Amino acid sequence: MITLTEVNKFFGTNHVLKDVNIHVKTGEKVVVLGPSGSGKSTMIRCINMLGRPDSGRVIVDGEDLMEPHAKLKKIRQEAAMVFQQFNLYPHMTVLENLSIAPVMVQGIKRDIAEKSGMEFLDRVGLADKATAYPGQLSGGQQQRVAIARALNMHPKIMLFDEPTSALDPEMIQEVLDVMVELAHTGITMVCVTHEMGFARQVADRVIFMADGQVLETGTPEHFFTHPENDRAKQFLSKIIH
């Protein structure tokens, strides 16, 4: 479903991704862990070309995104992304936020997009907020709306870039609960996060990154109890007591 091969990315002279190799199977739940500045967010943005690598190959659902005529629009619809910030339109209601992309990008009729949007709002527990505006919601509610908005594009892949990092501590669990439920639907997921409990509960596989490299990959049980890489051991020693 997703393959990154020898991916390198520079920001000026800063070598952010160094020969990154990752493969994610259809339906797999992969959680990417690592210290801040390790290249995690840059890597996940390369999956749908929100950040274009300087070299290497990125293949998503059989499409080589590094090719000049790659169908980026199609892939970005199939690989929906949820960011740290919610990026909701403040002047639109919650339901309008969910409906605008299916209507404008996919050409779906508004009533169909709204019906589907209501179903996803119900899934994230916010059907009663359909006519509210983002500014009337808590941070946790806004992030759940952002997840519902991504789902309303009916993607094959969900990408999460530290979706709880901008939330107050008491709001984090409500977002994680939605993500856990989503993981059980069988959708392919790649999630960059610092939430170790979520990684243990949901991940089929954990990828550990540091200094722009993938240093270890394995099951949550293996990674959290028997990490082999010294940098991974150091990371875990600081966050797990």
Automatic annotation (TrEMBL):
<keyword id="KW-0067">ATP-binding</keyword>
<protein>
    <submittedName>
        <fullName>Putative glutamine transport system ATP-binding protein</fullName>
    </submittedName>
</protein>
<dbReference type="InterPro" id="IPR030679">
    <property type="entry name" value="ABC_ATPase_HisP-typ"/>
</dbReference>
<feature type="domain" description="ABC transporter">
    <location>
        <begin position="2"/>
        <end position="236"/>
    </location>
</feature>
<dbReference type="GO" id="GO:0016887">
    <property type="term" value="F:ATP hydrolysis activity"/>
</dbReference>
<dbReference type="GO" id="GO:0005524">
    <property type="term" value="F:ATP binding"/>
</dbReference>
<dbReference type="InterPro" id="IPR027417">
    <property type="entry name" value="P-loop_NTPase"/>
</dbReference>
<dbReference type="InterPro" id="IPR003593">
    <property type="entry name" value="AAA+_ATPase"/>
</dbReference>
<keyword id="KW-0547">Nucleotide-binding</keyword>
<keyword id="KW-0813">Transport</keyword>
<dbReference type="GO" id="GO:0015424">
    <property type="term" value="F:ABC-type amino acid transporter activity"/>
</dbReference>
<dbReference type="Pfam" id="PF00005">
    <property type="entry name" value="ABC_tran"/>
</dbReference>
<dbReference type="InterPro" id="IPR050086">
    <property type="entry name" value="MetN_ABC_transporter-like"/>
</dbReference>
<dbReference type="InterPro" id="IPR017871">
    <property type="entry name" value="ABC_transporter-like_CS"/>
</dbReference>
<dbReference type="InterPro" id="IPR003439">
    <property type="entry name" value="ABC_transporter-like_ATP-bd"/>
</dbReference>
<comment type="similarity">
    <text>Belongs to the ABC transporter superfamily.</text>
</comment>
